[in-house]
Amino acid sequence: MRYSFAHVLSSLAGSALALPAPQGSAVSGPVDPSAVVSDQVLPSGASGSLRGSEALIGFAAANPISTESTVIPTDEFELGTGQSADPDEGLYIDLTNVKNPQPIRGGTTGPTDPGPRTAAYDALNSDIFAPPTTDAGDVGQAKWPFGLSHNRHGLAGAGWARNQNVNQLPIATAMAGVNMRLSPNAYRELHWHKQGEWALMLNGSVRVQSMNEAGQTFVDDVQEGDVWFFPPGIPHSIQAFDTGCEFLLVFDSGDFSEDNTFLLSELMERNPKEVLAKNFRTTTKTFDTLPDGQLWIFPGTPAPKNISEQNVTGPAGVIPKQTQYTYHFSQQEPLKVPGGSIKILDPTTFPVASGFSTALISVEPGAMREMHWHTTSDEWTYFLQGSARLTVYQAPGSSRTFDFTAGDVGYVPVPNAHYLENTGNETLVFLEVLQAKEYSDISVNQWLGLTPKQIVKDHLKFSDGFLSTLKTDKPIIVQGNPDLTTTDFTPSAGGS
């Protein structure tokens, strides 16, 4: 049947006539917001008014102006060590035990901060609060304390975990971290993920177990200071012994989330029982006892002390020694250098972790991880002990100085230059992680020492005497003085 335009219109009109009439409203016309405000019922016990008068808008000669000074008098605050020195020296300022710390360098005449503020934050981050005069421009936030990450708890007090990813530290696009705790005998349930997992044991001991695509198996026990690595997609489990444990996980993607891993419990729950029964050649009743919801971190039966009881081997055998998933890093002796020590773990000695190159570094009080940069990878840093500061230099003319303590994460994008100076009175210990096939860096000391002296002199106007002291080797760590107000580090003054 063909329909004319007139026929369509008449049909629509008929439909409209057949519609029910709209219901009446108690409100006639548009609502006046001021009437709603004036008629608003206030809670019992309230006094005063929610809003002020329109007479308060803009200028009026009668408006009061406060004459009370906001400058904090010098007798109401203290200066920290190094705070009175010439600001161009750039000394570290210790505000940790200072009354009412202020953002001042070079005496008491700088600008004060009457608040609102939390003085504890300022004391922990003195180089942000009272930055060196050399800081300039705009540099992305390079610090995240795990203490500010949401702490997700497992079942029945079995442990917890907290993330650091791009949601917390946006510049950390290449790597993310997880700090995890397992109570005695607890499991991190069988799982896998699309990212590679590099781990450092922080305390306690665990048993790790896995299997690869060929059906080769692996089980091992690791303790504080040891490392494991599971490649992307490789399923694994982690169980604490009766001492409990804590470990650090580093993933090769900045958007990794501990909440988004593939879990065995969810794999079972998200498939039809008929499919599960067919897959495992059993009856659907087998799966009536499956846990309700994910396990993630949960209490477990104590692992047998004899590891051979859990050494399950199939026709393919065990994973070959050179590609096994653990490295007993705690047994590796560090290279000792003036001012500290370093030990490196990269694919040269741990081949299965093909994209992870790491260094565990200790720096004595007053000493410094020398100025350097990396050529192919961002640097993800975790602080295990002590306190430090780090300045990030970003081309062409920006820099920012950050302060770190144990439990913090630092991040420096490639190829930004930086150092790490021990600002405390105990040994600084930190972990550097690179996405690289070999751990390497460019030493500023060595670079200038291996550049013709005339070229360096023409650039920086250094004296011939100083040019003759430039090193041609790579110091890694440079000695200093525990007195952080020191400015003379020449050998005659006791420097290295």
From TrEMBL:
Residues 146-288, 327-468 form the Cupin type-1 domain. One of its GO terms (molecular function) is metal ion binding. One of its GO terms (biological process) is oxalate metabolic process. Residues 1-18 form the signal peptide. SUPFAM superfamilies: RmlC-like cupins. Mn(2+) 1 binds at H191, H193, E197, H236. The keyword Metal-binding applies. Its cofactor is Mn(2+). The active site is at E432. CDD domains: cupin_OxDC_C (cd20305), cupin_OxDC_N (cd20304). Binds 2 manganese ions per subunit. It comes from the Eukaryota. Coiled coil: none annotated. InterPro entries: Bicupin_oxalate_deCO2ase/Oxase (IPR017774), Cupin_1 (IPR006045), GPI/OXD (IPR051610), RmlC-like_jellyroll (IPR014710), RmlC_Cupin_sf (IPR011051). Mn(2+) 2 binds at H372, H374, E379, H418. PANTHER family: OXALATE-BINDING PROTEIN, SLL1358 PROTEIN. This is Cupin type-1 domain-containing protein. The lineage of its organism: Eukaryota, Fungi, Dikarya, Ascomycota, Pezizomycotina.
